[in-house]
């Protein structure tokens, strides 16, 4: 009998089933680059930190160490940053406004420079004083005093980022561009379209459900494993076509994933390679404001994967610069998209003096060519995500139907230039609950809070003008785990359904909830494993009565005891104990034949036999009451393991953890024969007179010389891949190899 004491918080996890090498999908699930204000200061040289402290009126002394901490502590003092900001001009305030509106303390340098140019601000004038006062830190920092940060042009300082002090983001507001804005249309646009802004929320809700069902895994490079990426790409709700779209979004799944992580709907699990879903409380706390949170993260590039040397340039700067340009006129004014591209291009990419052309005195600005990259980037930004987020309205103007745009009330609110947009008309009944457990929801009655509520207990299936969801046992279990009751789910569906809830649906919800209610959760418990079911029955019969709860039978040989103090240890002979808060131990022995395995009960745990049963079969000759049970690996057992998802890499890791060694040659032979490694079946073996067996490689021959079925039939080894066959008649060897799944060819 072995006694174990598991805690459910720290159970062993399996190795990722797809290897990290050559299997990652570029652009998916990359971990954000560690870049904080203090880490940026830590990269600064002493010469720069001394200069900043002197500029702030702080004597740095003669020390060279700890200057970054001294500067951070000085700026962290209450109202210090506020007093410094009050003394700065409007240009630095525009720079801090970009940080504040995008809710990110880190901006790529080139993109920040182009955004400031689009606002009519010289980047050097906007950032020079904040850099000198330490409110903005470059990362990586310049190597010496003579290194110049400006001008912020592509390729000059690869990967340069500016990191703002967090306190500087809390008290700054952004303003529309300085100077004359782009020309407006003299008449309203026609065929106006405006999105409801729910599409990103719906896609992120579907992604949240997928991560809640099974966490996503990252490789060492930060990308998603192939299997997880394929699961996202094949989900109809997440990756399906968007109903109301003007410009298709490139690689939408990766963008939804990055946005979900940037708003906190998906979380990087600490000390792990997993991306997990946020608790269901997220929807109650942030559901109402989720569209604004997504829009702010999008403005700051939260949907982009920016590596250490990545430079998004105009693709990021255009987002906020174009929206602020639309805010420079009245709320009813429209702008031609081509003219807006010309105006922004002239500001963000001004021509050199020798290339400048005289301004046209009359008429509107000359439109850019159709293949102009600025016009294409503006189309991608405003007609794509900005439209889906509900930040702009889009219409047509002129006889040619040229695209025109207008900033929506939601867009002004996201920029901090207007009040919250008015809520849509409230529709109470917007659901059709079908007897087949399918739910049809109309978008007109939806809002982010209701989307979050539905996501807790119904599975998203299709997203379009009409939304379809499905109720099943897993979705109801998720709703119950989030704190809802079966009655609350029924009442909520009945309140918003057009017709009464079908009896079958109501009964199924109660049935599924009843199954979950039969589960019992123990925060801690002790499991006692007996050698046989009869020993367990004898222990139950002799168990002393007391105030503690009696033991529970959880398997034919396992008892669960909630109170460890109630265990009559004097009546038992303990073979070993196990604390499941510790990592798994080496506790499995490998037999001389290579295919037999047995666990040591003194060092093992309750998971060993479950792990063994995945790829090995219990030896029928093992006595039923034996504590040390013998398992045998066979081609059938490894084929079963392969069908259940086991790979050669996970099997190798199991042997390393549980046996302390490598996979035996006999098991590696069987793995090759069942193609567990995915490299294809080995070629047939060959035997010739005087009956020499030749294998395709030494590894195959090693396994045959060790395996119990073939070892008696082979004699001396004549080389790395050849051995003598003991009998002149190869029939016995052919039969043994056939049982292993190998064909023997005679030359």
UniProtKB/TrEMBL annotation:
Q: Which Pfam families match?
A: Helicase_C_3 (PF13625)
Q: What is this protein called?
A: Helicase XPB/Ssl2 N-terminal domain-containing protein
Taxonomy, superkingdom: Bacteria
Q: Where is the composition biased (Acidic residues)?
A: 7-26
Give the residue ranges for region: Disordered. Answer: 1-37, 348-375
Q: Where is the Helicase XPB/Ssl2 N-terminal domain?
A: 431-542
């Amino acid at each position: 009998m072995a006694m174990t004491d598991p805690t459910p918080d720290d159970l062993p996890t399996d190795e990722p089933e797809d290897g990290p090498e050559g299997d990652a999908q570029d652009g998916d699930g990359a971990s954000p680059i560690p870049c904080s204000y203090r880490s940026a200061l830590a990269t600064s040289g002493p010469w720069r930190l001394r200069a900043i402290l002197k500029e702030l009126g702080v004597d740095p002394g003669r020390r060279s160490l700890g200057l970054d901490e001294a500067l951070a502590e000085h700026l962290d003092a209450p109202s210090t940053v506020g007093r410094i900001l009050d003394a700065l001009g409007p240009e630095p305030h525009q720079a801090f406004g970009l940080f504040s509106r995008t809710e990110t303390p880190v901006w790529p340098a080139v993109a920040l420079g182009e955004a400031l140019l689009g606002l009519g601000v010289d980047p050097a004038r906007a950032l020079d004083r904040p850099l000198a006062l330490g409110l903005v830190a470059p990362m990586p920092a310049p190597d010496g005093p003579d290194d110049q940060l400006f001008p912020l042009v592509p390729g000059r300082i690869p990967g340069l980022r500016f990191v703002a002090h967090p306190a500087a983001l809390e008290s700054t507001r952004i303003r529309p561009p300085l100077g004359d804005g782009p020309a407006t249309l003299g008449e309203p646009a026609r065929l106006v379209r405006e999105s409801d802004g729910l599409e990103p929320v719906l896609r992120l809700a579907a992604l949240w459900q997928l991560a809640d069902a099974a966490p996503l895994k990252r490789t060492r490079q930060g990308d998603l494993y192939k299997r997880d990426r394929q699961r996202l790409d094949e989900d109809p709700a997440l990756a399906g076509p968007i109903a109301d779209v003007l410009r298709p979004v490139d690689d939408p799944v990766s963008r939804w994933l990055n946005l979900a992580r940037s708003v906190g709907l998906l979380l990087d699990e600490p000390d792990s390679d997993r991306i997990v879903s946020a608790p269901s409380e997220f929807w109650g706390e942030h559901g109402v404001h989720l569209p604004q949170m997504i829009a702010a993260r999008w403005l700051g590039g939260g949907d982009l994967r920016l590596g250490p040397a990545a430079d998004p340039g105009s693709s990021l700067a255009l987002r906020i610069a174009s929206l602020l340009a639309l805010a420079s006129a009245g709320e009813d004014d429209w702008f031609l998209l081509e003219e807006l591209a010309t105006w922004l291009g002239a500001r963000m990419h001004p021509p050199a003096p020798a290339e400048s052309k005289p301004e046209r005195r009359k008429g509107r600005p000359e439109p850019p060519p159709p293949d102009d990259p600025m016009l294409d980037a503006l189309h991608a930004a405003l007609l794509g995500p900005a439209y889906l987020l509900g930040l702009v309205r889009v219409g047509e103007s002129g006889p040619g139907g040229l695209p025109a745009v207008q900033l929506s009330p939601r867009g002004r609110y996201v920029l901090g230039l207007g009040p919250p947009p008015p809520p849509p008309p409230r529709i109470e009944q917007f659901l059709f609950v079908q007897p087949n457990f399918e739910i049809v929801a109309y978008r007109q009655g939806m809002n982010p809070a209701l989307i979050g509520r539905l996501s807790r207990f119904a599975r998203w299936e299709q997203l379009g003008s009409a939304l379809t969801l499905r109720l099943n046992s897993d979705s109801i279990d998720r709703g119950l785990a989030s704190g809802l009751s079966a009655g609350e789910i029924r009442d909520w569906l009945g309140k918003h359904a057009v017709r009464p809830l079908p009896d079958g649906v109501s009964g199924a919800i109660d049935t599924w909830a009843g199954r979950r209610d039969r589960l019992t959760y123990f925060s801690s418990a002790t499991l006692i494993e007996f050698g046989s079911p009869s020993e367990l029955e004898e222990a139950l019969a002799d168990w002393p009565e007391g105030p503690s709860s009696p033991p529970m039978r959880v398997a034919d040989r396992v008892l669960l005891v909630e109170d460890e103090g109630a265990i009559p240890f004097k009546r038992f002979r303990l073979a070993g104990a196990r604390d499941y808060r510790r990592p798994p131990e080496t506790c499995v022995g490998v037999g001389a034949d290579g295919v037999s395995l047995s666990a040591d009960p003194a060092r093992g745990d309750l998971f060993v036999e479950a792990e063994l049963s995945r790829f090995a079969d219990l030896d029928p000759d093992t006595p039923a009451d034996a504590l040390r049970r013998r398992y045998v690996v066979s081609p059938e057992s490894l084929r079963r393991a392969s069908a259940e998802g086991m790979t050669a890499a996970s099997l190798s890791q199991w042997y390393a953890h549980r046996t302390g060694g490598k996979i035996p040659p006999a098991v590696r032979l069987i793995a090759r024969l069942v193609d567990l490694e995915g490299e294809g079946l080995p070629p047939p073996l060959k035997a010739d007179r005087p009956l020499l067996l030749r294998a395709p490689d030494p590894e195959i021959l090693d396994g045959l010389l060790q395996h119990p079925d073939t070892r008696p039939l082979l004699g001396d080894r004549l080389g790395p891949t050849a051995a003598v066959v003991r009998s002149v008649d190869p029939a016995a060897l052919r039969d043994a190899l056939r049982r292993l799944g190998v064909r023997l060819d005679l030359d």
